[in-house]
Amino acid sequence: MTTHDYVIDAEGLRRVYSGGFEAVRSLSFSVARGELFALLGTNGAGKTSTLELLEGLAPPSGGSVRVLGHDPYTERAKVRPRVGVMLQEGGFPSELTVRETARMWAGCTSGARPVGEALELVRLERREDVRVKQLSGGERRRLDLAMALLGRPEILFLDEPTTGLDAEGRRETWELVRELRDGGTTVLLTTHYLEEAEELADRLAIMHEGRIAAEGRVDEVVAAYPSQISFELPDGYHLGDLPPLGQLGVTGHEMAGRTVRLFTGRLQAAATGLLTWADVTGVELRGLDVRSASLEEAFLNIARAAKEETKEAGDAGVTGEGAAR
Fold first, then answer.
1. CA-CA distances (angstroms) from residue 220 to 101, 205, 207, 308?
2. Which residues form a coiled coil (predicted)?
C-alpha cells in the first residue's frame, strides 16, 4: 500500500504543552480508507492529544500529519467539511431541545443530511422535543454521535463514543459504527473499553506515555501473548505429577497455593493433554478455566512492559548523572 492509499498519515508527530510536557512523542502510523483504527492506551497515554492533532484543533510541535491529503490545521477549510468529530464532551446549549440542537448544528455543516435522519440513526427521534439538560448521559453521547454524522463524513473521529451508555446502547452503537465502516467511512476510535476495540477494530495501536508500544491487527497483537489454563491441584498431587509441561506445549507456569496457571501458545493441545491425564488418573480439576489470549491480557502485558522499560531508562539516567558527578 502506498502513501496515497492512506487517508490519515502521521509521521514523527509530537505535541509539547507549555511547561515542556511532551504528550505525544514521535508518533507514526497510517490509516487506510474504509478502515476502523483504534487508538488505545492507559490514562495520560496521549490518545486525546493525538486525536486533537489529527482533527486540526492544534498544530503539531513536530513531525507532520496529513488527513485526506491535507494538513488538518493549516488547510482546515479543505478537511473539516469531509470529517465528523465526536469529542468526549459535546458542550451543547442545555436549554435547546434535541431537534433545535440538531438544526443549529446542521446550519453549520456542509451538505448536512436531514435532521430527522441523523436522530433516527442514533435512536433519538422520540426525544427530539426534550431539552439537552434533561437527557441522560448516554443520550447526550448519542446526540454527540448524531451531530458527528450530520455531514456524511468520509472520516469519523470517535473519542470514547460509548462512555455512559448501557450495554444495549453500546451494542447498538457498535452496530451503527460497523455499518458506517462497511459503507466506506474511515473510523478512528479511541476507547478505554478493550472489548469495544476487539469487536470493532481492523487494526489498533496501543500507546504509552506518548509513544506506540504495539500496533497491528487485533489477532496479531493478541497472538504475541500466551493462552492460559488454570486449575486447582488435586489433593495429594504435586506439579511434578502432571504430564511433562514441555510436551503439553506449556511455555511457563505460576503457582499460588494449590492453584496452578499454565501459559501456552498451543491451547487445544495443552488442554487436551491435561484433561486426558485427569481422566486416566481419575481426578477432578476443580476451578478449571481455559481461555485464549485476549486483547485485555495483551494490553496489560504491553502496559506493564512499557512502564518497566520507562522505569529502567529513568534509573539508568539517574545512575548516569550520579556517575558524572
1. 42, 11, 16, 23
2. none
Could you give the dihedral angle defined by the CA atoms of residues 34, 1, 194 and 15, in that order, rounded to the nearest 10 degrees? Answer: -100
- Segment 57-76, tens digit of pLDDT: 999 999 999 999 999 999 99
How do residues 255-281 score in pLDDT, each as one tens digit?
999 999 999 989 999 999 999 999 999
117-135 tens-digit pLDDT: 999 999 999 999 999 999 9
pLDDT over threshold 90, residue 163: no
Give all strands of the β-sheet with 22-32 in edge-to-edge order. 22-32, 6-16, 62-67
Distances (CA, A) of 154 to 11, 141, 311: 21, 21, 41
Check: CB of residue 254 under 8 Å from CB of residue 284. no
**What single DSSP character describes residue 66?**
E
Q: Are 125 and 137 in contact (CB under 8 A)?
A: no
Q: Residue 214, SS3?
A: strand
Beta strands in the chain (DSSP E): 6-16, 22-32, 36-41, 62-67, 83-86, 155-159, 186-190, 203-208, 211-217, 227-232, 250-256, 259-264, 286-291
CB 10 within 8 A of CB 54: yes
What SS3 class is residue 164? coil
